[in-house]
């Protein structure tokens, strides 16, 4: 589809991922005319949603695809734990309450879920996995949106915003080599953070950001976010806070996705370029701690680290895209990694001496721990002594950033002075910092996107309807 010379819509949605589509579908079902402008080409549509696998929603009982209940209070406690309390509690509780409706609503939009998963991920009770993954989920949402009459344009980047006070008037959209002014009664920003903008990352992180890998889309450069902040929309979040995991150092600079993530940290030790351990690898179950490891590796020399383990652990975790580095001795392994062999052997020996007897249980917080060593390993501590030995090199993998725009319970953007914007809404990563001040729990990004996307679309359509009573339900 091409953007016409004269365009006028009820709702303009910037972005093409989960949050954007939930907003578009919600608005269209309420009778609004909707245009979605996606900066990526059609094949790469959907931002980071393409790389997702699941979403975390509260529910009161087991279902066909979830192994047990996950009550609102437990969800909130998990959120407080991973964020260290750095969250807007009112918004977070509202989001969690609304999430209970999302599993049904999202399925009504054509998204299918698969039976619960156990194993290393430990998410069978809390998280619903998309049948076919994130791309299948996206395709279902796009089919529904387009069948409802939502218009979608690809390779269409918002390059300018006409905002008077707190009132959105129009957007300049670059498409097919030309810029077109798109007018709309309401605007929904659902176009991600700025993780693909390395220069912006450097403003918070310094030059070490050059060594970061961007595991998500290269199209999230924060263009709309910056324009909104410059136009007086309230800002929230720390520019250095983000979803940052340890991913394979051999991954591409952009778009490596979920298959470059490594889930084996809890089963081995992690050392830096000096072959020294620097954090408790067994602090908690992996879904509640995997997103701290990108930041931990970022703090190490040259932003590089190595996950080291032995033969008994090889089949305990989900494999990634790249095979592990393999060797018959620790010294040989160190040589392949570019580490000092004596240093790695010394670190492993010290760790092995500190391991206490216990009953290993990969599915729970077991009693396998260390004593007399810093940092300790709290759980899943087993001696690393059975050849062959393995390792993965890892670097910080940035998924999305938390610096964003402030919103209220109706997904309305809040201006610098705290007033709600007249007709501007936000959903997804661009406002995730309201809920995620720091840290992450698996699947919560999709929860933020779908819940606030649905609210944003509903509220945008209601605003249009209140000013234009002739709107009819689609």
From TrEMBL:
Residues 10-437 form the FAD-dependent oxidoreductase 2 FAD-binding domain. It comes from the Bacteria. The keyword Oxidoreductase applies. Its cofactor is FAD. It holds the Pfam family FAD_binding_2. InterPro entries: CobZ, FAD-dep_OxRdtase_2_FAD-bd, FAD-oxidoreductase_2, FAD/NAD-bd_sf, Succ_DH/fumarate_Rdtase_cat_sf. NCBIfam families: CobZ_N-term, PRK08274.1. This is Tricarballylate dehydrogenase.
């Amino acid at each position: 589809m091409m953007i016409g010379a004269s365009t006028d819509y009820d709702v303009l949605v910037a972005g093409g991922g989960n949050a954007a589509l939930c907003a578009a579908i919600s608005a269209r079902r309420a009778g609004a005319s909707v245009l979605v402008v996606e900066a990526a080409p059609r094949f790469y549509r959907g931002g980071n949603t393409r790389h997702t696998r699941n979403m975390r929603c509260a529910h009161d009982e087991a279902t066909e695809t979830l192994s047990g209940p996950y009550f609102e209070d437990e969800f909130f406690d998990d959120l407080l734990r991973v964020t260290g309390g750095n969250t807007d509690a009112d918004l977070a509780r509202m989001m969690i309450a609304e999430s209970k409706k999302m599993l049904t609503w999202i399925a009504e939009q054509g998204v299918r879920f698969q039976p619960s998963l156990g194993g290393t991920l430990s998410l069978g009770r809390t998280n619903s996995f998309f049948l076919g993954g994130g791309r299948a989920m996206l395709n279902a949402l796009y089919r529904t949106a387009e069948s409802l009459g939502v218009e979608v344009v690809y390779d269409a980047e918002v390059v300018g915003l006409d905002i008077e006070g707190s009132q959105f008037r129009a957007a300049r959209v670059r498409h097919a080599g030309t810029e077109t002014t798109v007018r709309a009664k309401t605007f929904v920003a659902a176009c991600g953070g700025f993780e693909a903008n390395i220069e912006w990352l450097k403003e918070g992180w310094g030059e070490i950001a050059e060594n970061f890998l961007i595991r998500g889309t290269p199209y999230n450069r924060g263009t709309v976010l910056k324009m909104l902040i410059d136009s007086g929309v309230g800002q929230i979040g720390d520019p250095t806070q983000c979803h940052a995991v340890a991913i394979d150092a051999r991954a591409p600079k952009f778009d490596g996705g979920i298959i470059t993530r490594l889930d084996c940290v809890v089963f081995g030790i992690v050392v830096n370029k000096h072959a020294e351990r620097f954090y408790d690898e067994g602090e908690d179950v992996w879904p509640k701690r995997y997103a701290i490891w990108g930041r931990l590796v970022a703090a190490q020399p040259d932003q590089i680290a190595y996950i080291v383990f032995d033969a008994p652990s090889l089949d305990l975790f989900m494999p990634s895209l790249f095979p592990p580095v393999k060797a018959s001795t620790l010294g040989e392994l160190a040589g392949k990694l570019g580490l000092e062999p004596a240093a790695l052997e010394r670190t492993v020996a010290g760790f092995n001496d500190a391991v206490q007897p216990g009953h290993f249980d990969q599915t729970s917080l077991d009693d396998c721990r260390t004593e007399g060593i810093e940092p300790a390993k709290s759980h899943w501590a087993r001696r690393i002594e059975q050849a062959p030995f393995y390792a993965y090199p890892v670097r910080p993998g940035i998924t999305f950033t938390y610096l964003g725009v402030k919103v209220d319970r109706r997904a309305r953007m809040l201006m610098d002075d705290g007033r709600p914007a007249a007709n501007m809404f936000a959903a997804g990563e661009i406002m995730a910092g309201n809920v995620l001040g720091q840290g992450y729990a698996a699947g919560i990004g999709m929860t933020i996107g779908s819940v606030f996307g649905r609210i944003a679309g509903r509220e945008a359509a209601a605003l249009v309807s209140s000013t234009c009573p002739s709107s009819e339900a689609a």
